[in-house]
């Protein structure tokens, strides 16, 4: 078997191919992680809307008032019961669910009474809208109808 000195690849050709493969995989990796952040953002928004729907239904079936309150760290759902022998200022709140936000999320409550949304036993609510925002500026809007208590999620409309 005779070896030909002109057969094979040079070191420069191999380095160039490895460089191109590295660049392409880097671009794919960055796009993959960006899409994962967006998927996590949409998942959180839908999870929050479903949580609101669930506790609206709980308010109707259990004949209790449920309050959704938002903070800069997360949100909580609590039952609101007023002692019949005392004034309204003596409310007893029992937290039934609490969730902490991921680092890449931020949210605020617009058109909410006392930074809370209340779900009442008749199916109605105090109404409001919740804006969920990711670090890259993507926003989703969760609307809670005051009369029906229905929860709707949609892309944010700057109004």
Could you explain the architecture of this structure?
With 159 residues, the chain is α+β, with helices and mostly antiparallel strands. The protein has a single domain, classed as minor pseudopilin epsh fold (3-Layer(bab) Sandwich). It is built from one helix and eight strands, in the order αββββββββ. A four-stranded antiparallel β-sheet has the order 3-2-1-5. Strands 4-6-7-8 form a four-stranded antiparallel β-sheet, with helices on one face.
Major β-sheet, in short?
A: 4 strands, antiparallel
The rough form would be described as rod-shaped
Q: Can you identify the CATH class?
A: Alpha Beta
pLDDT < 50 stretches: none
Q: What is the rounded Rg?
A: 26 Å
Given the helix and strand composition, which structural class is it? alpha+beta
Helix-strand sequence: HEEEEEEEE
